[in-house]
Amino acid sequence: MAKEPRLPRRERTPRPAAGGPKPRRAGPADAPGHDPLPAPLRAGSAPIHDALLGWFTRVGRDLPWRRGIDPYRTWISEVMLQQTQVDRVVDFFHRFMERFPTVERLAEAPEADVLRAWEGLGYYRRARQLHAAAKRIVADHGGRLPSTAPELRELPGIGRYTAGAIASIAFGRAEPIVEANSRRVLARLAAHAAPLDGTAGDGPIWEIATALLPPRSAGLWNQALMDLGATVCTPRSPICSRCPLAPHCLALKTGQAGAIPVSTARRTVIDLDETAVVVRRGAKVLVVRRGVGEWWEGLWDFPRLPAKEILAPLGCGRRRVVGTCSYTVTHHRVAVTVAACQASCQGPRRDGVAWIDWEALGTLAMTSPGRRIAALAEREGGMVGRPAAGASRPRRG
Ligand code: SF4
């Protein structure tokens, strides 16, 4: 990394007041007699801070949202990084920032445009909540993100981790974070060998993260923990020989580096089957919008059988199978049979049902299985109509 990531001067963590450290908010770790840190870490926390912050200065990852810290960019990147790998997020981040460079532009955009820009990142609930939060920030906070974790947590889609990340990285607040990478590093550093699954399992790690937070540079510390977990203290094969925390790491000392964090049973994968129908009428194709509470709520897709109320009035001819595909969502593995048929009429108007030119499918905010089904139908089934002049957004009916 060419340059040390630095917070703007006005956003650095304030120095402790003369005569003593900056007071921390009380938490479980502050209860009398309770200290979540094993004694060796408690005694060595200053060298631990120096070691990790020094390492981060030298080799921390050069990521686009770290170049010139800005609360809006930090927020967008942190939401994108929830459940999506950094490498995948970089391109999406650039495109999203080009499309919505300010919170005002995001707030005023139609939801369909936000979902379209989110396409490929998955977990569309995040995009919907991001959009709702942008409206709140403009309406209630004059277009500026709140700077404290409690205020940030009032916004849709911002939980404890994201609030801590924004407050510490963008505003220099002394807030801890716990996400997949830092959780693993902290658990190993403290040789915390209890299972970490679920919110209850994370409780002790939040206490360790809070107790180990440096008095200054919390934002850099948090980013350093995440980088160390992503590049050195990896899930299966931690590279302890290259780790700046090796002299302090209790898991390494006790031969548990590969065994921590401890996990309880994996979630069982559920197999599902479904049949998607690509209904054509001339150059047009039928699409349906995913309903409230469904996966990919609000995005367009092809109907799944039985869908009698949608398909029955269309006078469809014989269905023929054009291929199969599959997708995974949460802990479900779904096998899709793709069928195609011709409709003889457009049927009655219905909310959430539309006919669209095949060539205009690309302009729709569509589910990832929908895109896969469209590609398969186009390849295998000869579903393509010629580009329609003025191909447009779907009309109801
Ligand atoms: S010494 Fe090994 S197990 Fe411990 S924090 Fe470093 S990489 Fe992880």
Describe the structure.
- It is a single chain.
- With 397 residues, this protein is an alpha+beta fold.
- It is built from 15 helices and 7 strands.
- Strands 1, 2, 3, 4, 5, 6 and 7 form a 7-stranded mixed sheet that branches.
- The chain is elongated.
- The protein binds iron/sulfur cluster.
- The site of iron/sulfur cluster has 14 residues, from helix 10 and helix 13.
Per CATH, the architecture of the largest domain is Orthogonal Bundle
- Biggest β-sheet strands, sense, barrel: 7 strands, mixed
Structural class computed from helices and strand pairing: alpha+beta
Strand content: 5-15%
Helix coverage percent: 25-40%
Gyration radius over CA: 25 Å
Number of strands: 7
**Helix count?**
15
Indicate the mean pLDDT.
85
Assigned CATH class of the largest domain: Mainly Alpha
Write down the CATH topology of the largest domain: Endonuclease III, domain 1
Low confidence ranges: 1-32, 384-397
Straight-line N-to-C gap: 55 Å
CATH superfamily of the largest domain: Hypothetical protein, domain 2
- Total domain count: 2
- Note the overall shape: elongated
| Heterogens | iron/sulfur cluster
- H-E order: HHHHHHHHHHHHHEEEHEEEHE
